[in-house]
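Backbone-to-sequence.
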């Protein structure tokens, strides 16, 4: 058998500026790119019309088409991860496996198992930093403990950034870099993967709109404007590199750079404190007596709370898989504070519906809204949805887009009165935090 190396695609679906792929090619061996439609992961996303699966599928199609131009292809597998590697070691003389590091608790555990299995066959496993500028252990306090507050973390992040961090890991692709394609191997269809064949989401190659980024600071809080980058899903699946984003942010807008640093801060928190994926970072918040009223939760999910900005946000999410970031804060605060529903309920709902869902960011932002995160809004900060609407959607343009029949005088009666809800929340939080 010909000696080869494997490059394992995960959250890095691109050919250019891909650290792990670069090193696989530089090994001097022919590279077999693989992607595993991991049945353990897909089982967590049972919606057969899930737009994220469609996005990922189309992004992989694009990579595969480009590789075919070089007489190669991605080798696709639909199974749990370990059985795939058991099959691969029987099929190829594998000299090494290359990939890019992932930092979520479950994927770290998976990678440890793969590494251990490959070691029994004397196959090295190399995982490179690709989806962040700084990995979690690269930015620590002077006592070598992780930062729990964003501002000093961001200050160190900026001070450590060099041109070297922003270099693109790109090679001119050549056919002789890759294992030749096999005519009998084809990409499984969406139907074979258990998803709808009719595509309801069109993948487009990520691009930077400098006019949006340059005006990001002034416009980002107004949901009626198309004034955000919409690159969250691209960063989630790695169809754009973080290095390209940071280069653009440094050129165009400091506020957007801050958002990219928040992303790495939350990823660092989840890495160092994996229990925070399901538990309050501030443990005392586990004492909160949540109401967890299921009828009110259903009203929130459907966008039928009687608060038009909240309802418009939830309807946008349900229809498109996206929600404007300012509105995300409002709907999260409303669920946790106004309705006293456990933040984990909201986090789980977002996990099923957000196209740009990322565990670290979703958990970090929900705990921020609930006050129980590492650098969260104080518990006594309760967004007033009506005041938020007056400030950020004064002309009701966003609300009327998602609630076309909206008329202020005849709209749904609010399911809770703001003043009462605020006082109830403050009392519940105070009692829990004694």
């Amino acid at each position: 058998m010909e000696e080869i190396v494997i490059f394992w695609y995960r959250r890095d679906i691109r050919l250019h500026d891909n650290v792990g792929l670069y090193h696989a090619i530089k090994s001097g061996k022919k590279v077999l790119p693989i992607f595993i439609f991991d049945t353990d992961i897909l089982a967590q996303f049972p919606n057969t019309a899930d737009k994220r699966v469609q996005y990922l599928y189309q992004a992989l199609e694009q990579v595969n088409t480009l590789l075919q131009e070089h007489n190669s292809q991605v080798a696709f597998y639909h199974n749990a991860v370990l059985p795939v590697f058991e099959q691969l070691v029987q099929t190829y003389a594998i000299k090494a496996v290359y990939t890019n590091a992932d930092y979520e608790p479950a994927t770290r555990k998976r990678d440890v198992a793969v590494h251990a299995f490959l070691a029994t066959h004397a196959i090295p496993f190399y995982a490179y930093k690709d989806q962040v500028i700084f990995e979690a252990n690269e930015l620590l306090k002077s006592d070598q403990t992780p930062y729990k507050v964003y501002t000093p973390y961001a200050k160190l992040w900026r001070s450590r950034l060099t041109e070297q961090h922003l270099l693109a890991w790109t090679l001119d692709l050549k056919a002789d870099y890759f294992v030749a394609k096999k005519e009998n191997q084809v990409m499984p269809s969406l139907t074979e993967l258990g998803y709808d064949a009719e595509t309801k989401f069109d993948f487009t190659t990520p691009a930077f709109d400098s006019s949006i980024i340059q005006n990001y600071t002034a416009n980002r809080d107004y949901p009626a404007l198309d004034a955000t980058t919409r690159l969250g899903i691209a960063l989630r699946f790695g169809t754009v590199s973080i290095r390209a984003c940071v280069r653009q942010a440094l050129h165009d807008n400091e506020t957007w750079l801050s958002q990219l640093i928040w992303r790495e801060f939350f990823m660092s928190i989840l890495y160092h404190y994996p229990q925070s994926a399901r538990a309050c970072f501030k443990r005392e918040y586990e004492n909160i007596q949540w109401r967890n009223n299921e009828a009110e939760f259903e009203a929130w999910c459907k966008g039928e709370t009687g608060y038009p900005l909240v309802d418009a946000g939830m309807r946008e999410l349900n229809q498109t898989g996206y929600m404007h970031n300012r509105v995300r804060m409002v709907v999260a605060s409303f669920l946790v504070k106004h309705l006293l529903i456990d933040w984990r309920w909201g986090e789980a709902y977002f996990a099923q519906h957000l196209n740009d869902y990322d565990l670290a960011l979703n958990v970090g932002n929900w705990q921020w809204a609930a006050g129980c995160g590492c650098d969260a809004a104080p518990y006594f900060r309760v967004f007033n949805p009506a005041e938020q609407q007056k400030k950020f959607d004064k002309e009701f343009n966003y609300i009327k887009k998602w609630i076309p029949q909206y008329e202020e005088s005849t709209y749904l009666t609010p399911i809770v009165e703001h003043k009462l809800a605020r006082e109830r929340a403050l009392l519940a939080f105070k009692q829990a935090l004694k």
